[in-house]
Fold this protein.
Amino acid sequence: MSSMSQQFDRMASQGTTSPTSGGLVLKVENLYLHFCTAKGVVQAVDGVSFGLAPGKSLAIVGESGCGKTSLARAILRLLPRNVQTYTGHVFLDGTDVMQLSEEQFRRDVRWTKMSLVSQAAMNSLNPVLNVGLQVAEPLLLDHRASKKEAMERAREVFRIVGVPEAFLGRYAFELSGGMRQRAIIAMALMAKPPIVILDEPTSALDVLTQANIMNALKKIKQELQLTFILITHDIATSSDIADEVICMYAGQLVEHSTAQRFYRAPLHPYAEKLMASVPTLRMDRKPDFIPGQPPSLFNPPSGCRFAARCVKRFERCHEEPPLFAHGAEAVKCWLYEKG
Amino acid sequence: MKDNALLSVQDLRVWFELKRWGFFRAGFVRAVDGVSFQLGQGEAITVVGESGSGKTTLLRFILGLVLPTEGEITFDGRCLRAGNKRDHAWLRSKVGFVQQDPYGALAPFMSVHRILAEPMIVNNVPKSEHLQRIREALEEVRLIPVDDFINKYPHMLSGGQQQRLVVARAIILRPKLIVADEPVSMLDASVRVEVLELIKNIQRQHGLSVIYVTHDLSSVRYFSERAFVMYAGKLVEKAIVHEMIHNQLHPYTQALLRAIPDPEPENASRFREVPPGEPPNLINPPEGCRFHPRCPRIIKGLCDVDEPPEFEPNPGHFAACWLYK
């Protein structure tokens, strides 16, 4: 516990690479989320900081268990009961939403400022309510709008995501997988939030359905000027809407880059290896793999968490690197110490 | 026709009957409808298709889990009677299966030893051989040192190790053919290639044949020689993988591969090309070519009337499309 608070102090004193709140839609500072489990404390999100400029969409990529879904849940305060540590700051248009009470957050932020398209979206529709009613719900909560207005808006968002209006009166089982996914996206758009977080929106879908959904998302992004935060392990899909990319490893942010940088020549040795392991259809480059396994989040190694698998490691790597600024990018690796 | 074919299938049909009331028959789902192919000894092929294209039914047929309605099937020089249970049970013991989801495929209450012994118990392998074979299989999938792993349970293994255990189970009966259903889609990008390379090495060492069934050609392109594209119960194109990627002939293959993205920053500023419409209903598939309602290069009066046979515009490259008549 004491080592963690020391680490916290160190990171807080260093500050972050992004300017303080000015002009950013979303700014996350030193976010920690640890869970209590029977086996010990899982350090799911461990000191993540980043900022997002308006009009930019962000992809958060990483392997399973690296904490990307936990990060989304921490930002939206959708937490399970077994939280051990939950600290940090999340600034939304300059206000720290972490300081709000649970009730205020639910009323003023969730759905209206930030919404979530959850991971199991395929199965998250209620089978005994018709789809229209469920999609309209974010507006019906707290009497934000009358039922008539809400249904009117539901019709509008259905048009935006490309579902025929007739589907409003249908039930979930009458919709195909792609249609259900679109309905869930429609629900997230209902209350016109400026930020929509998409957690693996296409992982359970076929290639062609996936392509259709991604096209719909791109169109929405262009037309509504939304900020999307796409969380995925599928790097090829993430390139569809990302302007910026955050790469996570073992609960920490290891690289925050522009899409140009990340998909062409990432900075962090892990990101480099990860990109090399992505198979491509058009380039004749044989994919590679990363030997070894990610560290356990119960007791992560001190120092750089990737060091054990890294081919570029040197003496300094037994100390934990801070997040170095490298031009417009940020990277958590001693190789970039001089910037 | 190749002489060294391990598996040869002619005009295979697997139809599932819908509900029947007395004399009234509601119809059939034509999940696999007239599929022919040959698989050489030691060859690896990939079957690509969307869900609902019948690729899983084809796989289940090869595993002997569904009985075909009709078709000529020869495996390892032996002719199988379509629909004969005993013949298909024999086939099942000769084929190893690598499941998609290792977490679901391994019984949580069985140790590694027991998981690997199970197929040998079912197939009456003498008990004295069990331990020796288990050790060999674990060494082959590089779960070494063997003594560290043999008494573990699946939950103690990482995703990649679990999938290697599934591969070990698939080879323990020394099959001639391994069928892999999306073998790496549940795994993380960083270990996918490791598992595929492992299967490739085992294949080379033992001269096994491998059938990959997947919707993502890019992940297995370096691990198989030929690829088949399946659409609505039929194989629409068969070619060497390199040809399939760089010179597809069938309009469906072209559409399918165009929709698969590569990780490029330019993707954010362009839309993916997707053919309009949805795959057809397999109870009542369209007349003629099954892709014609969605095809951008349809020849009116031909494609919507007559079913295209297989043409061979380039040697070894087959396409069931009237454009190549």
